[in-house]
Every structure is written in structure tokens, then in C-alpha cells.
Specification:
By secondary structure, the protein is mostly helical. The protein contains 14 helices and five strands. The model has no long low-confidence stretch (mean pLDDT 97). It binds adenosine monophosphate and tryptophan.
Length: 333
């Protein structure tokens, strides 16, 4: 079946192994299937829900495009563009914010995590962020949205918004209700320093994540220093469940080798951790090393990256501007 794919990544720097295994790897797989129509968006409007330095933001937008391409997304086959340059996203977000209910947004756990204790000081944009995300997806009639596990709740909200719009305006199937594409396993990669926390761009310690721009020595060093316990590798899945750091590292290994925890355990059960870490670092170097080199090469080619975005904006705009016009008509503007 041919799928219409849409996904977004925030240009907030430090794209890491979690982004790669949770999202980008799947983008590449979907992009490689000729039947699919793929759109990958650099969501700069989402990025400014938290304060950004303007110069850094500009660089991070290019770096995100470079990372897409270095990971294997073909810009000839997929549309790659920056969200802020297609006005329909902001327009649709406003209209859909009049469909979404406060009660729905109040349940979003990511807002609670990001806003922290002092919710009063969070931007209004951070609160309504999932509505903009729904606008992104619904403008392109996306059928499938590949994301990591942390976006599951936002996608459910997007589905609710689409259904309520269709119901409120009595226009069946006008907004396509999208399906999430979340990998069954390894869709949440954890910090290398704390197996109970998500690997994240904003975590202070750089040792907590493998950045996609890390060189081979940095990768090897970070795996060496990754938190483990003093016991040998777990013997079975039951024991693994009680040891979150071991589970995370074995999950990374399994995802990199397209395997599963059970098979990986058969290789390493009862062995010394340092031996396993050597093998894992090797796998990471052979997967992430070439991506890191390619990102650095592409970053110098600013004009090439800007052209990809310009081209993508034109294509995205021609789809989104038609959809927003229909939305406006339906609403009665
Ligand atoms: P973001 O960097 O927040 O824009 O996320 C881009 C994509 O990476 C989204 O699909 C996220 O769900 C995914 N992602 C981010 N962090 C992780 C993680 N630690 N594990 C798995 N997927 C992740
Ligand atoms: N909220 C997503 C994240 O932080 C990024 C995003 C924005 C997105 N718009 C989207 C993902 C549309 C999928 C579809 O990871």
C-alpha cells in the first residue's frame, strides 16, 4: 500500500542516537520504498517554543537538513523543508486551536515535563505545541507518521482534532486521521548515564548521549563511560528488566543490528560488560561514524543545503496552500 508519510524534527542542535534509532532510521526505510510519498519537515516554529539564539537556530536548521541527508534520506525522492516558510502551518494551527479543547491539552505529559515546576513561566507556544504539530500533519493528508515513543500522545491528540473538525463541520473524511508508526521495540533510547531518563538533546552532560556528529574516539569513550553495574551481563530477559542501563545498551545493540533482545542476550549473557561494550562501540562506529563524517562534509556546502530547503518549500507550499484554502472555506471565511 502506498503511504503518505509526514514527520518533523526540531532544529535544536545535538541530534543524537535516540533521534536516529527512534525516528531517522525509520524515515530512511520509508523513503527507500518507491511507493511512499515522504515529507520531512525541519520544525523551526516548534523550536522557538523554548528560547533560541537566532544565529544558532539558523545553523541548526542547516545541520538538521545535513543530518537527514547524511542518514540516507534522498532529497530527490522526499520533500525536505522548513516549517516557518510555509505560512499554512501557522494559519492552520490557529484554526485547529479553536477545535482542540483545553482538557485535551492539559493531559499532555511532555508539556508538564518541559515546563517543569514553574508552569507560569512557560511560553503559551510550548503549551499549544501539539496543535501546531497536528496542523503540520493534517495539511498534507498524511496517512502515517513515523516518530519515537515520546510523541505517541501528541499523535493521539492529532487524531482527536481531525475527528472533531470533521464532525463539527459535518464533512466526513476531510481531514485524514493519521496512523502513528512507532517501532515496537527500541522506540525510546535512554540516557547513557541514567537508564530511567530519555536520551535527550538538552541533557547537560554530553556523556549522556551519542551525538550524530561525534567522531569515532568520542563514541568509543562515551560507551566506555556509559553507566553499568558491577555484575556480568544478565542471563535472561527477566533479569534484564531489572537492570535498566544494561537493557538500554543491549537495546541499542539490537536496534543497530536489526535483531532483538532475546537473540542479543544469547550472544552476551553472563559475559563481562567490558567485552560487550567493545563490540557495541565497534557497531556504533561503523554505523554512526560515516554519518558523522558526511554531516561535517555537508555543513560546508551551505548553498546546497539552502537549495534543498527552497525546493522543498515550493513543493510543500503547493500542497499546503490548497488544503488551507479548503479549510478556510469550510470554516466560513
Ligand atoms: P525532536 O528532537 O524532539 O524533534 O525529536 C525528533 C524525533 O526523534 C521524534 O520522532 C522523537 O520521538 C524521536 N526521539 C527523540 N528522542 C528520542 C529517544 N531518546 N529515543 C527514541 N526516539 C527519540
Ligand atoms: N513534536 C515532534 C518532536 O518533538 C516534532 C514534530 C513537529 C513532528 N511536527 C511534527 C513529528 C509532525 C511528527 C509529525 O519530536
Amino acid at each position: 500500500m502506498s503511504k503518505k508519510i509526514f514527520s518533523g524534527v526540531q532544529p535544536t542542535g545535538n541530534l543524537h542516537l535516540g533521534n536516529y534509532l527512534g525516528a531517522l532510521k525509520n524515515f530512511v526505510y520509508l523513503n527507500n520504498d518507491e511507493k511512499n510519498k515522504c515529507i520531512f519537515c525541519v520544525v523551526d516554529l516548534h523550536a522557538i517554543t523554548i528560547k533560541q539564539d537566532p544565529k544558532e537556530l539558523k545553523n541548526n536548521i542547516r545541520e538538521t537538513v545535513a543530518t537527514f541527508i547524511a542518514s540516507g534520506i534522498d532529497p530527490k525522492r522526499s520533500i525536505i523543508f522548513n516549517q516557518s516558510r510555509v505560512a499554512a502551518h501557522s494559519e492552520a494551527a490557529w484554526i485547529l486551536s479553536c477545535i482542540a479543547r483545553m482538557g485535551w491539552l492539559n493531559r499532555m505529559t511532555q508539556f508538564k515535563e518541559k515546563a517543569g515546576k514553574d508552569k507560569e513561566k512557560a511560553s503559551v507556544g510550548l503549551y499549544s505545541y501539539p496543535v501546531l504539530m497536528a496542523a503540520d500533519i493534517l495539511l498534507y493528508d498524511a496517512t502515517h507518521v513515523p516518530v519515537g515513543d515520546d510523541q505517541k500522545q501528541h499523535l493521539e491528540l492529532c487524531r482527536d482534532i481531525a475527528q472533531k473538525f470533521n464532525n463539527d463541520y459535518q464533512i466526513e473524511n476531510f481531514l485524514q486521521v493519521p496512523e502513528p508508526l512507532i517501532q515496537k521495540e527500541f522506540s525510546r533510547i535512554m540516557s547513557l548515564k541514567d537508564g530511567s531518563k530519555k536520551m535527550s538533546k538538552s541533557e547537560q552532560s554530553d556523556l549522556s548521549r551519542i551525538n550524530l556528529t561525534d567522531d569515532n574516539d568520542q563514541i568509543i569513550n562515551k560507551i566506555k563511560k556509559a553507566k553499568t553495574d558491577s555484575l556480568p551481563m544478565p542471563k535472561d530477559l527477566k533479569e534484564l528488566d531489572k537492570r535498566p542501563e544494561a537493557r538500554n545498551l543491549l537495546g541499542i545493540y539490537s536496534s543497530l543490528t536489526d535483531s532483538n533482545l532475546e537473540k542479543s542476550l544469547q550472544i552476551f549473557a553472563g559475559k563481562n560488560f567490558s567485552k560487550f561494550k567493545e563490540v557495541l562501540a565497534d557497531k556504533l562506529v561503523s554505523k554512526i561514524g560515516p554519518i558523522s563524517k558526511e554531516i561535517k562534509k555537508l555543513l560546508v556546502e551551505r548553498q546546497y543545503l539552502d537549495e534543498i530547503l527552497l525546493n522543498g518549500v515550493e513543493k510543500a507550499n503547493s500542497i499546503a496552500s490548497k488544503k488551507i484554502e479548503r479549510i478556510k472555506e469550510i470554516v466560513g471565511f
